[in-house]
Amino acid sequence: MPEFDADRFAEAKYVDYLTDLQQAYKNAFDRMNDRFDSKLVHAIDQQVLNESEPFYEGAGRFRLELPEDPADRVTGVVVDEEKLDGVLGTYAETVEREIARRFGFDPDEGSATAAE
After folding, report:
1. Is residue 1 part of a domain?
2. Is residue 113 domain-resident?
3. Sorted alphabetically, which InterPro entries does this protein's record hold (predicted)?
4. How many CB atoms lie within 10 A of CB 8?
5. What span, in angstroms and rounded, lies between the C-alpha atoms of 34 and 15?
6. Has this prediction a pTM greater than 0.70?
7. Residue 95 covered by a domain
């Protein structure tokens, strides 16, 4: 894993940090799959999060930008909008936390254990 460089993250995330991002998304998927309906988690993963974009916000925090109208993208699973919104929000937060962990930050504290 390359050392995290906050200034380079935006331009190099899919080159220098791709493997770490993939692992963070996988870790989040595994956590969500243990807690929620696996069909719904898989649909969100494949139909929404595949188009998401991670951003470094500073102070060890990451933000996941979702595509427009994420609920409209989820097909093949019957779920009411309120449940979908709740699971999607939890999933996005889980991805953000897993990215922070992967880069050596404590997502509970927002502080870095790795060099910024």
Report:
1. no
2. no
3. DUF5783
4. 15
5. 30
6. yes
7. yes
DSSP secondary structure of 59-106: TTEEEEEPPSSHHHH--SS---HHHHHHHHHHHHHHHHHHHHHHTTEE
For residue range 49-86, what is the model confidence (pLDDT) as tens digits? Answer: 999 999 999 999 999 999 999 999 999 999 999 999 99
User: Is pLDDT at 10 greater than 70 in this prediction?
Assistant: yes
Identify the pLDDT of residue 3. Answer: 84
Sign of CA dihedral 53, 112, 108, 28: positive
Domain count of the fold of the chain = 1
Contact 31, 64 (CB under 8 A): no
- Domain containing 21 equals 6-107
- State the Cα–Cα distance between residues 37 and 108, nearest whole angstrom: 26
Residue 32 lies in a domain: yes
Band (pLDDT 50/70/90 cuts) for residue 116 is: very low
How many residues are given for the chain? 116
